[in-house]
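Title: Prediction job returns without error message
Component: structure pipeline
Severity: low
Priority: P3
Assignee: unassigned

Description:
Job completed but the reporter wants confirmation the result is attached to the right record. Sequence as submitted:
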Amino acid sequence: MDLLNPIDAIFLAAESREHPMHVGGLQLFEPPADADPDFLRSMYAEVMATTEVRPRFRRQQRRILGNFSSVVWSHADRMDLGYHVRRCALPAPGGDAELLDLVGRLHSALLDRHRPLWEGRLIEGLAGGRFAIYIKVHHALMDGVSALRLLQRTLTEDPLDTRLRVPWTLGPAEREPEEGESVWEQLRKAAPRLLTGVGATATALRAVTEGRLELPLSAPSTMFNVPIGGARSVAVGSWPLDRIHAVRSATGTTVNDVVLALSAAALRAYLLERNALPDKPLTAMVPVNLRSNAEPDSDGNQVAALLCNLGTDIADPLQRLQTISASMRRSKEVFTQLPRLEAIALSALLMSPLPLVFVPGFQALPRVPFNLVISNVPGPRKPVYVQGARLERNYPLSIPFDGQAMNITVTSTADNLDFGIVGCRRSVPQLSNFIGHIDTALRDLERATA
């Protein structure tokens, strides 16, 4: 029985039918040239034969003292892999629209709380013999960074390596509590970490006073900051990294700054189409990974939350990019001065108004903590394969919730930058328009820096 850290517990406690709290990923593969028609069926059979499941993927909720269900994990004694991993197909020849419709429906469904909190699908029927893999994992089990890194470890840079690696069999070994250690002993050991919030509070107050941090509850209300339903829509797009790096180099910014600028331009264009662009700039929450290289896919959530001014009130694309870059630089300067636990505590402090959106009546607050989450998670830098099938695209899919009807997450796949956008199907209509707006935004920045 393992004690949850406070952030993981919040993700469990906040979940409802309208707020599925899982992260996911959609991977598209090109099969090897000599693959036979049964390639995916054979892969699925081999997947189902890997029945050794590590403790992380056997974790499920356990109730203690009657009703406390978001405090500790227990471990399933037996795993029904046939439930967690399934094979399905699109009507052939399946297109991207059919695939995204299926993935949107899969991403809308809650994970079963009576089982370990993860599922996967192997999807065939795509045109040209391509296939897709969709996986979702509850955010309480692991955050998006560790989930993506773990999935990367199932792939290889050698196209001739046909060994199958599945995430639920991979190490490193987890650091379990000492044998016989009770939950109360774990709580006693964890208590001193709560004191880090005191130092984080002083740091936050000083940084806000000096104008180095964006303020929560200062974001304007938009069409994204409304109560949402449980249905999701998904939009995806990819662009060559060479184009992103050319803009970065010409402007003296970072790749993440350019990602945020492309997202901001798309948000501006989308809102202008609907005569819904506020006079004040939108604010994004930008997660930043705090793990060291020695713990790349450790359990739970180890991220800091930076608030960024997206400059959506600025028409000029270069000026908007420089505004975003300056905002991110100020926030990073504050967080890099803190030990990791204090950085996490400061993030929790900056996001402290957010849980109010789950309380009845508080959705009508005049301000929101931020307008949406935009994440950039590094991916594989070279071509990678599974049993000789090349990974073409790797779209991360994350979590919208009440008051945050859209999420934008980005990763890299060899020479491409892949955007995965998830929105409330009811609150964010025509989500696919975002892909065209991002493409236009990149062209505008290229013209401005030529």
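Comment from assignee: result matches the submitted record. Residues 356 and 362 are 6 Å apart (CA to CA).
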